[in-house]
Design brief:
It comes from Opuntia streptacantha. This is Myb/SANT-like domain-containing protein. The protein has one domain (about 20-140). Helix content is about 55%, strand content about 5%. It contains 6 helices and 2 strands. The chain is elongated and about 45 Å long.
Length: about 150
Amino acid sequence: MEKGKMKEVNEEKKTQFRWSKTMSKALLTFLASEVQKGNRPNNSFKSSSFTAAANVISKKFNVKCLPKRIDNHLKTVKNAWGIISKLRDKESGFGWDDNLKMITVSPSVYDTYIEANPTHEKYLNKKIDMYHEMAIVVGKDVARGRGA
């Protein structure tokens, strides 16, 4: 019986699973609704939320998505949120456009910063897709700034 189980795991590992932007947006939308339903006590999702999210992604995109893939992608989203949060808190040449949900960087700072941090370029001077949903799903403080 163990051999059969091993084979299943190995078969799973052979299949690469790639998250498209559309899939990621669907996941964030679903998980944001789970938060609003109270299914993330103590900043940690219930396993039933991961199972339900995997089912939604599987059906909507006609793929085989497992709960562990949801957990792994959520780690990627958390990592991105960490970078976004650090960049939002930077001073001297950095700013935040709350209407566009965009981290702004002055031209004099941009080139030097990107040379030292090339992976951060995708977060600078560009609208951050799904910012609100990311804040709900992985942000520690959803309410920030004036009037929050």
